[in-house]
Amino acid sequence: MRRTALLSAAALLTGLLPMASAQAADDLAPVPVDRFEGEVPFADPPAGGIFTWGSDTDDPPALELTARDDAPEGDKVLTGTYDISGYGGFTHDFAFAEPAHDWSAHKGIRLWWEGGDSGKKIAFELKDGGANGEASELWTTSFTDDFSGWKQIELPFTDFTYRTDYQPVGGIDQVLGLTETWGYAVTLPVGVKGEFAMDAVELYGKADQSLRASVTTDAAVYPVAEGRTAAVRLTVATTGAAPIDEPVTVAYETTTTGTASADDFTPLKGEFTFPAGTPSGTTRTLEVPTLKDKRAESAETIPLKLTVTGAKPPAETPQIVVDAHGLPYLNSKLPVQKRVADLLSRMTLAEKAGQMTQAERGAVTAPGDIATYDLGSLLSGGGSTPTPNTAKAWAKMIDAFQLRAQATRFQIPLIYGVDAVHGHNNLVGATIMPHNIGIGATRDPRLAQRTGSVTAAEVRATGIPWDFAPCLCVTRDERWGRSYEAFGEDPALVEQMETVIQGLQGAPDGRDLKGADKVLATAKHFVGDGGTEYGSSTTGTYTIDQGITKVTRQQLEAVHLAPYETAVDRGVGTVMPSYSSLDLAGDGRGPVKMHARADMLNGVLKGRMGFDGFVISDWAAIDQLPGDYVSDVRTSVNAGLDMIMVPYAYQDFHATLLDEVEAGRVSERRIDDAVSRILTQKFRLGLFEKPYADTSGASEIGSAGHRAVAREAAAESQVLLKNAGGLLPLKTSQKVYVAGSNADDIGNQTGGWTVTWQGSSGDITPGTTVLEGMRKAGGDVTYSKDASAPLGGHDVGVVVVGETPYAEGVGDVGNGHDLELSAADRAAVDKVCAAMECAVLIVSGRPQLVGDRLGDVEALVASWLPGTEGDGVADVLYGRRPFTGQLPVTWPKSQAQLPINVGDAAYDPQYPYGWGLTTLGKAPEGGATTLKALAVAAAVAEKAGAEEAGRALVTKARLIVQRKAGQDITAAVAKPFADADHLLLTGRYGKAVEKLTAAYRAS
Q: Which long-range contacts (CB under 8 A, 24 or more apart) does 549-553 make?
């Protein structure tokens, strides 16, 4: 999909296209859009002009303005050559800052095209509505190059259809309004070398009223309790909000073509007219009475047929729905198990298959499909948001989807899911927490739970009851682009941080899930996604993500499965398998995709661990299974998947699953098990009683209280690796020179999975950068991103460097990424640290290789990806809070050492797992004698189960070792030091101090 190119806007010279408006004349003179005489330059955004795009570097076409004697208009035409393997074309958007253009008065758009009789289709696209050219809808049509020479191609606006394969921001209103048009794009044929010529793009013709005026209903579905009256509001509206020129007549009639019978409602039939001159926005209301009887019934539909003359009719026939009533599953006082059993017994196979189907919201271009296919779930992929991207718009969008589900027989509500992996990260203005790698660095399970609570409250306040988090991966190779999604490399640390599940869900038994501040959590990605072997990925250009995890059964149990056992004990509601493959030594199967591993999903997860939630697939993950689509569906469902995320293929999946059950290749028992699990969570969430958004907590989204939690998490996540001469904390009296690419960039600071899937640099969401936090802390700060400002007169430098955002395999090392600082960052560090004492902060999702510069740096901080609250970073820099964070992963000396992890036989890192200096008062005194006494006391605490005392004793021993070792961390020091932290996390306090004693002796 062309994500970046179509999200970009290019300028259109203001005088080129005058604003078109409706005219009273019988016809309108053509209005030029592009003449290609040189008035519009070729320039990439953000500069104005025509720009090209493509799926890779070879796919964008080559364009030029060519003088031609046969030009249909003027002297020049636009010519181009192309050889496209994926997709490619060019765009002419209006300048981002200019108003959109009103094309609604015209019949269509036309252009001259020099045909080559290739028989290929040329796609032509409009960008319509929304906030700007980057947040508009894409509408497309095409013409066929089946002619030779110049031909004028006319494209009536009525021929354009909403794009279903890709939308940059998803649906806005899915109406081609033409009152706010941002430009056009041309997509060229794939798989052939070709050339083209094009000239004179212009608007033509006059739109008749039936294209400018429309009659709409305020909804497509009208649920009503039996015996009550449904009110259907009909509104006449025109583009540009002008009064209608001619009368508009609406004939209406209730029909029995729905599921309701004639004795369920009072028939309604009639006609009314909006006379000429009626103001746009005028509304009439029709009332449809329903009749009450004493029967318990499923929901019944009453279509209201509308025949409109003189305007466009509603896109759909509105339906009155008499609510289901009197059936046991609707009784909230019954146990969930009985409600599930009753509902399941009433459902058809097609309805059950629908519950197992999850679609991407942008794919549901016909909202009626929610009822047609009895869809069980929708999701927003990364960056799939409403426009505008506000809490109110999220709630309104999801309520509209839930309304559609009310038109189904049993009115089973949707369960809407979103990747809120560090706060409600798709929502602009939400509180963005540190990524999991930073939460792991805090070593603070209570704080982890509080971050989960904030996330849950903000997500649920926008109408979303389900979060695809937390990631319980155990990252074993920092070349992995998902490293920052892990709490760390040690399964014991991951288990400690799983308190986030209680923050999201509440009590393990699910009794809190109905609350307006709780969401269903997802443990992902089961199992072994953090252990894939470098170079084993077969997904595009990925190098390690979605690759193969090669382990013994013992390694699988000890490293990768252990966190899931804890998650199941904590009552996690859903589990998502990994894209990766598992190659289990000795089983004779070789690498098998996790979505096909029945032994792991049915056997280990549901069987041995007793998981009673449901398993949700990853994004289109079944498409990666070997074989055809039919076998993908059969294999994955039989392996234990209960709901399948088929973003753009929900119709195919639904039909295929039905066929497989009817053919006996998937058992009805397997279907009933899957649907029972899904319905159980919907009942636990209280969705049957309250399907719509409870926005009572919306005022707390991004609130000071929520940001205070994120600020505390950011502060506790900071790991002080080096602090020569006690440079940190800074004093507000010091003159501080701040530099580096990540000092003042909220996008870099929050990382991937922020507003969009990959994240992006820049001011993408409200928050406080590190620089802003330092200024707010009262620091005397000079800032120069590239250190070009004069360096003299400063007491200390702070250089904030690191990575730019990425997500998943896009961020894999070897896929355009490495673990080195950029040339600009290295230059900033070298320049500032040569001129004054300096502290270097590394804002990144994984360790960066800085060993060659350590001698020139007084202080080094692993700042991870701290989220929106840079105040938290400033808090530790200026001593408002102490540095207390510890490394959640091993910090390597070189990339050649990777993978390197705690417990390795050979272990010689730059900084060991668990390393973290503190500024909390004076470091404890003592030596071997003190450590011996600490070991005795720690053993006593271990025996007594005194966790707090045991941790305190081990921490004191660790600080003594760090003080002696300084920066001279040899392999003999590093290995027992790291092992000690693992022992601490597993409650073996006495053994932990013994290991630290060995590290002390080796230092």
A: 549/580, 549/581, 549/582, 549/583, 550/583, 550/585, 550/591, 551/582, 551/583, 551/584, 551/585, 552/584, 552/585, 552/586, 553/584, 553/585, 553/586
Which amino acid makes up residue 268?
L
Which residue among 128, 808, 869, 979 is the active-site one? Answer: 808
Pick the catalytic residue: 180, 300, 498, 618?
A: 618
The pLDDT > 70 percentage for the chain reads 96
Q: Chain centroid to CA 7: how far? A: 16
Helix (H, G, I), strand (E, B) or coil at 313: coil
Please answer whether residues 842 and 740 qualify as being in contact, where contact means their C-beta atoms are separated by less than 8 angstroms: no
659 has catalytic annotation: no
Using the Cα atoms of residue 550, residue 551, residue 553 and residue 555 in order, give the sign of their dihedral: negative
Residues 756-780 have a mean pLDDT of 96
337's tokens: 């198990």
Question: Is residue 780 among the annotated active site residues?
Answer: no
Band of pLDDT at residue 213, cut at 50, 70 and 90 = confident
The Cα 254–Cα 72 span in angstroms is 54
Amino acid at 778: G
Residue 111 in tokens:
């252009």
pLDDT in tens, 724-748: 999 999 999 999 999 999 999 999 9
> In this structure, what token pair is assigned to residue 789?
């400002």
Indicate the burial class of 23 (C-beta count within 10 angstroms; 0-12, 13-18, 19 or more): exposed
Label residue 806 by pLDDT band (50, 70, 90): very high
Beta carbons within 8 Å of 92's beta carbon, 6+ residues apart: 10, 12, 33, 34, 40, 49, 50, 183, 184, 185
Show the beta-strand stretches assigned E in 356-513: 357-360, 377-380, 415-418, 466-467
CA distance 212 to 988: 75
Contact 836, 876 (CB under 8 A): no
Rounded to whole angstroms, how far apart are CA atoms 220 and 320?
A: 9
Over residues 654-666, the mean pLDDT reads 98
Length of the chain: 1003
User: Helix, strand, or coil here: 919?
Assistant: coil
Helix-helix angle 989-1002:971-985, to 10 degrees? 170
Report the run of H or E that residue 929 belongs to, with start and end: helix 928-944
C-alpha distances (whole Å) from 759 to each of 762, 765, 805, 844, 952 are: 10, 11, 5, 13, 39
Burial 271-292 (b: 16+ CB within 10 A, else e): eeebeeebebeeeeebebebee
- DSSP letters of 123-187? EEEEEESSSSTTS-EEEEEEEE--SEEEEEEEEEGGG-EE-SS--SS--SS-----SSEEEEEEE
Q: Of all residues in the chain, what percent are helix, strand and coil, respectively (each to 5)?
A: 30, 25, 45
CA 166 to chain CA centroid, Å, is 15
Nearest to 153 by CA among 163, 167, 161, 143: 143
Amino acid identity at 458 = E
Closest alpha carbon to 477 in 840, 842, 904, 850: 904
Provide the token pair at 37. Answer: 């005489």
CA distance 717 to 721: 12
Residues 6+ apart with CB under 8 A from 188: 61, 80, 82, 84, 88, 89, 122, 194, 196
Structure letter (DSSP) for residue 485: G
**Residue that wins the pLDDT comparison between 924 and 913:** 913
> 82: closest CA among 197, 194, 187, 198?
194
Locate tokens 């009310």: which residue?
Answer: 406
